[in-house]
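Appendix B. Chain record.
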Amino acid sequence: MTDLPDFLAARINEDREAVREFAGTHWSGEYNEIEDDTGESVLDMSYTGGCIAGFLEHATRWDPARVRLECDAKTGILLHYMTQRRRAEALNRAHADNPAIFYPEPWDLSLRYLALPYRDHPDWQESWLPPEPGTVETWGRR
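Structure tokens predicted for this chain:
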């Protein structure tokens, strides 16, 4: 598979399938806190089955409902990209004298960032690696 949109669509579908068995479930980060002998608030490990609070936070962040919404968001971006690319290709063919109607670079870069979490997949191509994004704090300061 050499096409980044195809690669990304396949990975999104794999994510969606991975949470399908949990359809309708919602994970919560709620747990009981109790006071120990000194009055300090501690996690009631008997309630969590021995899990630590960090795991509960992690599980909540990867709630199947949230993962499905992320898949929907990524799919929406990908479909918008593909629609715009097809339209631009048609316009570019119709106006061969002015082929610069569609500039794919910003969109291609967006897809490369969306695909980055799948970098460990065997079909990943290093040519898809986007530049280092920086941080939100540095945005606009470059």
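Further analysis of this model is presented in Appendix C.
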